[in-house]
Amino acid sequence: MPNSLRLVLLTGLSGAGKSRALQFMEDLNYYCVDNLPAPLLPTFVDLLRRAAPGQGRAAVCVDSRSGNQFDELPAYLDEAANLGTPFETVFLDCADDILIQRYSESRRRHPAGSNLSVQEAIAQERDQLDAIRQRSDHMIDTSETSLSELRDRLADVFGTTKGDVAMAVTVMSFGFKHGLPKEADLVFDVRFLPNPFYVRDLRNSTGKDKAVRQYIFESGDADSFLAEIERLMTFVLPRFAKEPKSYLTVAVGCTGGQHRSVAIAEDITQMVQKLGFEARTRHRELGLGVPT
Questions:
Q1: Four-CA torsion 271, 144, 244, 132, nearest 10 degrees
Q2: For each successive 10 residues of the chain (292 residues), what is the average pLDDT?
Q3: For residue 25, how many other CB atoms are within 10 A of its CB?
Q4: Partners of residue 168 on adjacent β-strands
Q5: Which residues, in sequence order, are CB contacts of 118 under 8 Å at separation 6+?
Q6: Which of 13, 112, 185, 261 has the fewest CB atoms within 10 Å, measured from its CB?
Q7: Could you tell me the domains of the chain?
């Protein structure tokens, strides 16, 4: 009987939203365990295989709360894989300033200890997590991700049984002045297009507004650019899907993330859908909310 047991390891920075992510995995009918000591991973896998031979779904959170034992997590993952069912690893990341803000608001102590400042604790934890971050299958930056977006992303990747997962595409607009989105797989810069910010009547509108879109597209450059993007997408999307890649993020950036990137992202989403892929649009700078 083929082994269809699907195991997901959630890890990442303290304060990046792992507890919420584990709750969402439970909503997806995964058996969930929080704060499992890293050395128990192989035993956990063996117990699951005995309890549900050939089938089942489980998600486990292992992070720096394991202390020095966490450093051996890659070896424990390899040992678990040798039992015949490897983990898919999800790493939750977050910008330092956002993490500091969350700890300030929650008044919780960072698990790295009370002898360090929050900033020092975050830096120490980043160093400790670097090895597992490098080998993660999915990286989610929650700096500017709402709870609903985090839930949707996990559902896109883990909501069906392995082998039936179609690649889900998110087309994200963003502003370069707010930083590149870390989760982006492809990045397109549209700052060469006419900027509605310098038109007084359009400045306070967004790329979803008809007048803004008309201004952006009137030169013809936007249409030409989208034609080139369509050629690229036609080529790369089927190849990403065969990799296989469960989730692809296409990021479109302008200066502030309000006008040009929004309009172009909307068109790219429709383009991707016409190519036969599931696609959704996210406008990062048009409404921010973060998981805790």
A1: 160
A2: 73 91 89 89 84 74 83 84 83 91 76 76 88 89 85 82 63 95 93 95 94 96 97 94 79 96 97 92 73 30
A3: 25
A4: 247, 278
A5: 99, 100, 103, 104, 110
A6: 185
A7: 6-158 (3.40.50.300), 168-286 (no CATH)
